[in-house]
Write a structure and sequence with these properties.
This protein is mostly beta strands and 158 residues long. The chain is 8% helix and 39% strand. It is globular. It starts with a strand and ends with a helix. InterPro entries: ChsH2_Znr, NA-bd_OB-fold. It comes from Streptomyces sp. R44. This is Zn-ribbon domain-containing OB-fold protein.
């Protein structure tokens, strides 16, 4: 049985099967403030003169690590998880997108640990899978060091 790829949150990122994967935010046409997660109802900038619309914009595909940490234990309730499933540590990364003047949080790509990161490391957004069940692959975004991408490409060519 083929599982269907589904975004965990529709509208937060482009189709993960296209080559130019991007997070999607919105930009106020009156004050140019950018929002992620996207804001579709009103501009949250208290200094906005108002009267603008919120237009969807792809966010920068690369940024710099602002902070990072790892999750080494299963969060307690009310977090929902299968206690019988093995727990796998993961790395969380806060990435500063300079053009948008914002920090976006996300998981690091599989295989990326805190040892691979430092504040200021250049990373890029890549498609990822958060969870899967019998019918779906629930897709999300991950951050991957740009240097790791280049290393992987070199390994694939050799």
């Amino acid at each position: 049985m083929t599982r269907t790829r589904r975004p965990v949150v529709p509208g937060w990122f482009t189709d993960d099967t296209v080559p130019e994967f991007r997070l999607l935010g919105t930009r106020c046409t009156a004050c140019a403030s950018v929002f992620f997660p996207r804001e579709d109802d009103w501009c949250r900038n208290p200094g906005c003169p108002g009267g603008g619309a919120l237009a969807e914009v792809p966010l920068s595909p690369r940024g710099r690590v602002w902070s990072y940490t790892d999750g080494r234990y299963r969060p307690p309730a009310p977090y929902v998880s299968d206690p019988d499933a093995p727990w796998e540590p993961y790395t969380l990364v806060a990435v500063e997108l300079a053009a948008e003047a914002m920090v976006v949080l996300g998981q690091a790509a599989p295989g990326v640990t805190t040892a691979d990161l430092a504040v200021g490391t250049e990373v890029e957004v890549v498609p990822g899978v958060l969870n899967e069940d019998d019918e779906h692959l629930w897709t999300t975004w991950n951050w991957r060091p740009v240097a790791q991408e280049r290393r992987t490409e070199r390994e694939e060519r050799s």
